[in-house]
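hey
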């Protein structure tokens, strides 16, 4: 390259140029605007020995001191090339610039907004890069980059995202610079200086193949740890899917780890790992298990999905951050020998248990047969139970409608139809013999006060346990996510669930003591024991509902429906209490049981809760309240009373006893009617 004015000494006096371009002049002539030049700045720059026309080639002046020729664009490459003989730095920086995205933009469009050399290095006041008063100030570089990359109009022309780039201002790098750390990363530290590559250029320092090296310029210690991890080893081996720094931390959207918006914030870690570990193609290529799904179904995963508890274990809590190692590595946090210590970070007593066992087990044959069998036992049980309940409800409604229709038609034939059919009751003869002296609408007490109080507490505790437990069973529902976002409601949910769980335990303990101490209650418990006749009664009830049997079965004080519900309640309470205690006092139990025990408790607690809730909503609500005989509400749980008509239909044997006692009392043979009110000879204790 040859700079003709520089080598030949062809120049005008600088003073002639400064007549117009000096900072002391307005800078406006003939309607054109010029950048003013500060002579003092020029005098102290590295170009102090170079005169104006040696850079601004083509300048010729006429007699009136106006330009005779057009001044060409300054070409720094005329001097700044390797091998130059004029004392400029021996680097091909100008050529590098022309190869980068900015230089290429200038080559394609002379009016390009891409920055030129002087935009970063300044024009007339340029200082040495290595000098104490260098002109390439890092703050200036950031400002120059922002001038274009924060301008949506300019960026729109080149199809670049302004908002994405502007996220740099909220990164730890930018915040550190604001606090005075001049070494914090700026644009050129990551993207390069002169030869800035296009995004898809293989040599771009921000391509995955180069990112760890780029970040290592500042984060050397972290980089060394990363290279020893399973991800780092994959990157070193050229594995294209191996995550690098930007995969997890992002690029311009980098945030502090403790910032809730950070991609590596505890509540976001799972979704971050899920991007790769739930990818089927990646799983197949590298032989990975879909451990994310098993985690999301665990207690840790459910609470994490609610998005509130930052302390609940996520992927990084167990596997580590930059130091992730496969479980087969003896130094891995999730190696079988180290699991006790890892779990002990949160569950301190778990450190005492050296047999934590297998983690991330699924209810599948290839993962855990016991969980697989438990899941399908409950699926069959729930499907069968609810299906049977719905079938019975359908037959009951069918029988009621057909009997009512038959009754109305019979009245029409006899011309005895009443204007108000709402008072229809099934013909008395179909439900046993009715005593003519005792009207069907007469009420007698069936449940003593002690029973009603226990039932009320049971209703309250069960309802609250369902409402506060559902967010853990269905964490993705919008309403439960709204609760999770409110810190007060989120904390209240957990406290309330545990409080009513302990109320349920206390109620069950009291019920056992109550039965042991009360003779009538003991007699009722004996009456709750299923007998062969209960199966017969159930079969005959279905036949009756389908109009295949004329008479309703003659049932005892507690019929097959009540026996089924009570035994289901007793069994369900035992299961829920046992599994609930394991889940609540996990640290204690993990001292003695492997992790699979915790998984079993979680699975059983979930399915048992679903079964109990469906049974109450479908079976109990219908058979007790919504069946036509009691609609809209059975008042037994409220005042303990039942009509003689319903008592005769649903508890024929008890009806006969009560009717006999009522007739004896009417005749004055019974002084104390306690037995009559209870229908079983029991007291009101």
């Amino acid at each position: 390259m040859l700079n003709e004015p520089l080598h030949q000494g062809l120049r005008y006096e600088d003073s002639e140029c400064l007549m117009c371009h000096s900072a002391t002049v307005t800078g406006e002539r003939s309607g054109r605007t010029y950048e003013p030049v500060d002579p003092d700045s020029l005098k102290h720059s590295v170009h102090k020995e170079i005169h104006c026309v040696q850079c601004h080639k083509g300048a010729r002046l006429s007699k009136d001191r106006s330009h005779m020729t057009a001044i060409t664009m300054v070409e720094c490459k005329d001097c700044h090339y390797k091998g130059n003989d004029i004392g400029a730095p021996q680097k091909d920086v100008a050529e590098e610039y022309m190869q980068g995205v900015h230089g290429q933009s200038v080559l394609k469009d002379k009016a390009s907004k891409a920055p030129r050399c002087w935009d970063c290095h300044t024009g007339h006041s340029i200082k040495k890069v290595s000098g104490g008063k260098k002109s390439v100030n890092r703050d200036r570089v950031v400002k120059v980059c922002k001038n274009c990359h924060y301008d949506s109009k300019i960026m729109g022309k080149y199809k670049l995202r302004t908002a994405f780039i502007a996220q740099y201002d909220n990164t730890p790098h930018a915040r550190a610079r604001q606090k005075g750390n001049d070494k914090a990363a700026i644009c050129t530290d990551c993207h390069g200086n002169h030869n800035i590559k296009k995004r898809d250029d293989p040599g771009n320092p921000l391509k995955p193949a180069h990112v760890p090296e780029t970040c290592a310029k500042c984060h050397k210690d972290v980089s060394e740890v990363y290279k020893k991890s399973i991800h780092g080893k994959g990157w070193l081996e050229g594995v294209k899917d191996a995550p690098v720094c930007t995969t997890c931390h992002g690029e311009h959207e980098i945030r502090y780890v403790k910032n809730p918006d950070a991609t590596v914030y505890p509540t976001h870690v799972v979704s971050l790992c899920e991007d790769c570990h739930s990818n089927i193609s990646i799983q197949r290529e590298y032989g990975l298990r879909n451990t994310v799904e098993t985690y999301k179904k665990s207690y840790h995963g459910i609470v994490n999905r609610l998005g509130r508890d930052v302390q609940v274990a996520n992927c990084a809590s167990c596997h580590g951050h930059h130091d992730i190692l496969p479980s087969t590595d003896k130094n891995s946090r999730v190696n079988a020998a180290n699991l006790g210590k890892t779990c002990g970070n949160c569950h301190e007593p778990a450190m005492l248990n050296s047999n934590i066992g297998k983690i991330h087990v699924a209810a599948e044959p290839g993962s855990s047969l016991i969980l697989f069998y438990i899941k399908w036992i409950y699926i069959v049980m729930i499907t069968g139970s609810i299906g049977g309940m719905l079938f019975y409800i359908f037959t009951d409604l069918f029988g009621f409608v057909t009997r009512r229709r038959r009754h109305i038609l019979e009245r029409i034939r006899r011309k005895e139809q009443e204007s108000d059919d709402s008072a229809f009751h099934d013909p008395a003869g179909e439900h046993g013999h009715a005593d003519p002296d005792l009207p069907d609408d007469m009420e007698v007490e069936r449940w003593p006060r002690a029973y009603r109080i226990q039932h009320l507490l049971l209703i309250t505790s069960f309802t609250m346990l369902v409402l506060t437990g559902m967010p853990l069973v269905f964490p993705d529902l919008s309403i439960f996510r709204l609760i999770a976002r409110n810190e007060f409601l989120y904390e209240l949910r957990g406290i309330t669930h545990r409080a009513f769980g302990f109320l349920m335990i206390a109620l069950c303990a009291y019920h056992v003591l109550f039965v042991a101490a009360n003779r009538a209650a003991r007699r009722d418990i004996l009456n709750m024991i299923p007998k062969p006749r209960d199966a017969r009664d159930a079969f005959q009830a279905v036949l009756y509902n389908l109009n295949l049997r004329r008479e309703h079965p003659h049932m005892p004080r507690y019929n097959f429906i009540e026996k089924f519900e009570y035994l289901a309640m007793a069994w369900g309470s035992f299961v829920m209490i046992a599994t609930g205690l394991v889940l609540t006092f996990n640290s204690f139990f993990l001292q003695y049981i492997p992790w699979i025990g915790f998984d079993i408790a979680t699975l059983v607690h979930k399915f048992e809760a679903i079964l109990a809730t469906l049974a109450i909503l479908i079976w109990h609500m219908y058979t007790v309240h919504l069946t036509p005989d009691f609609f809209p509400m059975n008042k037994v749980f409220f005042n303990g009373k039942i009509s003689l008509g319903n008592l005769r239909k649903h508890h024929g044997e008890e009806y006969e006893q009560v009717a006999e006692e009522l007739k004896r009392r009417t005749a004055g043979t019974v002084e104390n009617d306690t037995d009559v009110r209870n229908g079983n000879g029991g007291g009101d204790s």
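Strands lie at 28-29, 32-33, 443-445, 641-643. Residues 369-414 form the longest helix (46 residues).
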